[in-house]
Amino acid sequence: xxxxxxxxxxxxxxxxxxxxxxxxxxxxxxxxxxxxxxxxxxxxxxxxxxxxxxxxxxxxxxxxxxxxxxxxxxxxxxxxxxxxxxxxxxxxxxxxxxxxxxxxx
Length: 105
Description:
Helices cover 36% and strands 17% of the residues.
């Protein structure tokens, strides 16, 4: 069975609950806690789910908003489990064509 997991990033919601409506409001609050991010980095952190997040940044966000990591990240199943039946062939992998050229040709 294959189970694809995803998550919902709830930073903007938690900010709104604390009366923080502008992403730039987080910049000085993070800096007070030793996390120095540009306004653009903070904007992306708030508006897009991060693929990677340092523990220092996560801890600072939790402290600023008085929440736990569970309040910022909601894990969810993206697609339901898929069971393969016996005798069902596996799907063929996608075909990738590669062209090899010698230098100078």
